[in-house]
Write a structure and sequence with these properties.
- With 499 residues, the chain is α/β, with parallel strands linked by helices.
- The protein folds into two domains: 268 residues, 3-Layer(aba) Sandwich (Rossmann fold); 188 residues, Rossmann fold, CATH 3.40.50.
- The protein has 19 helices and 18 strands.
- Strand 1, helix 1 and strand 2 form a beta-alpha-beta unit.
């Protein structure tokens, strides 16, 4: 008789294509699909945002939730994702998740004051769902992602019964910690004993992130380098002591990319499909992109792109300072930016673009279609980061033959191979490094990349090396599966199945 499939509930605050603000959504969706290919019985869980309800398919009858933290009338809506068909359940409280605004900000663009309550309710609902309290089989393991799910490992422990699920908590970014005043802790209904309060307290606040780090059976970070970095004062954001104490449970696993979506050979949104052996299509994509963005149509002009959040972490302030120098050095240089974030930075980039007609384009409205076209038509990706847990943008760029210029921290160091004379000769180089966080260092990296771009044969070999790099989710999913088995062993379960 075959062993029943491992039942995994994967919980996240955003999952592509149902809702997305960043890489967490892409990673959650792609990992779930890869786990299914490994015959894992995986089920997704997230809030019922309006965009999620609009897109979910094969919706079944709703299941009523008991009152949670004083919130009555909650439902769980279960269906499938529209792209991969992975089962997904949405926790539906309209006043918490469908009241206008974004996933984490209100209609005025301000961080929602009730985010701790919103995601505590999600965690309570996920806990009940994982424990099989809504007329379905309980799960073997719950995979939690980032601070929004940080209370879930804690709740699974405080409500533990024989056969309760194991938990794995993945750190996507230590900088976002989900802080809540300690005097609001009782309303979150966590069942904490007094001697456990220190395991969630963070400099006078309760930290959802710290709760996940302290109570999960196993921890992962989204790259091996980042797993090491968060144990240091520079990158630990005050939680390096927790990470050091639990280092025996911490594993770095690189995020992957979904090549059924992020590949120039299949993308439906670009002017011409291409691959590493047939780069003519990339030239067509560049020509169409220059036309679309109102840039001078010049096939030899170096076109540098930026796609991401306009934040301190992503060195958007340094990029803003570097751009006038970048453009002034050679008259054919071009730049295109797709990103949003700090309103002051947004305004400054838009203003600079208006002064550089034909050479610079900026949009603060993200779309997947635009991101694909920028990757396909760009020559260089500037991806400076003060810290970077993994980064997906550089992986997408490499797939499209767009060479990343990165600061080698976290996942950037794990995924991009510096173009040294040795790696260029060996055909293993995939990008350019710059070491420091200042304008001069960034410009030096950009200028070195452009000097390689001006040598077409060298550049084409560099593009082909980047495009053949393998960052598939299948390899990462197998690594997660081994972590799941380790988490089950920690709670005394050897093997798996419906227990």
């Amino acid at each position: 008789m075959s062993t029943p499939a491992l039942r995994v509930l994967l919980c996240a605050s955003e999952i592509f294509p149902l809702a997305k603000t960043g890489g967490l959504a892409d990673a959650s969706a792609a990992l779930a699909a890869a786990l299914e290919r490994l015959r894992v019985d995986v089920h997704l869980f997230m809030p019922a945002y309006a965009s999620a309800i609009d897109q979910i398919v094969d919706l079944g009858p709703p299941q009523a939730l008991p009152e949670i933290m004083g919130h009555a009338g909650g439902l769980v809506l279960t269906g499938k994702t529209p792209d991969s068909g992975v089962p997904v359940s949405l926790v539906d409280y309209p006043h918490l998740f469908r009241d206008g605004g974004g996933l984490y900000v209100d209609a005025d663009g301000q961080e929602r004051h009730d985010n701790p309550q919103r995601f505590a309710v999600m965690s309570h609902a996920a806990c009940r769902f994982a424990l099989g309290e809504l007329n379905h089989a309980r799960f073997d393991l719950v995979h939690c992602n980032d601070w929004h799910t940080g209370l879930l490992p804690l709740l699974l422990k405080t409500r533990s019964t024989p056969g309760s699920p194991a938990s794995v908590f993945t750190i996507h970014n230590m900088a976002f910690q989900g802080l809540c005043p300690m005097d609001r802790l009782p309303e979150l209904d966590l069942g904490l004993a007094n001697d456990q309060l220190g395991r969630v307290e963070y400099y006078g606040h309760a930290s959802f992130l710290k709760a996940g780090l302290e109570f999960a059976d196993e921890l992962t970070a989204v790259s091996p380098r980042y797993a090491d970095e968060i144990q240091t004062e520079e990158f630990g954001f005050g939680l390096e002591g927790v990470m050091q104490a639990r280092s025996d449970r911490l594993t770095g696993i690189l995020n992957g990319i979904d090549r059924s979506i992020w590949s120039p050979s299949v993308s439906p949104w670009i002017a011409a499909n291409f691959d590493r052996d047939h780069l003519e299509g990339k030239a067509a994509c560049k020509r169409q992109l220059q036309r679309e963005l109102g840039l001078v149509e010049n096939p030899k002009a170096p076109l540098m792109i930026f796609i991401g959040r306009l934040t301190w972490q992503k060195m958007a302030d340094v990029l803003l300072e570097a751009l006038p120098h970048y453009l002034a050095l050679e008259p054919d240089r071009q730049f295109a930016l797709l990103g949003s974030g700090d309103p002051v930075l947004e305004d400054a980039f838009v203003r600079l673009a208006s002064e550089q007609a034909g050479r610079m384009w900026v949009s603060t409205v993200y779309s997947e279609e635009s991101a694909h076209r920028l990757h396909a038509g760009g020559d260089l990706l500037i991806h400076g980061s003060r810290f970077e847990p993994c980064g997906l943008t550089q992986l997408y760029a490499m797939q499209f033959g767009t060479i990343p210029i990165v600061r080698p921290v976290g996942g950037l160091a794990d995924t991009v191979v510096e173009a040294s004379p040795e790696t260029l000769a060996a055909g293993t180089a995939t990008g350019i490094y710059f070491a420091e966080t200042d304008t001069e260092a960034m410009l030096a990296g950009i200028n070195r990349a452009i000097s390689l771009y001006r040598c077409p044969q060298v550049w084409q070999r560099l593009q082909q090396s980047a495009m053949q790099a393998d960052f598939s989710w299948d390899r990462s999913a197998r690594a997660y599966l081994s972590i799941y088995e380790r988490a089950l062993a920690r709670i005394g379960v050897h093997g798996h199945g419906n227990r």
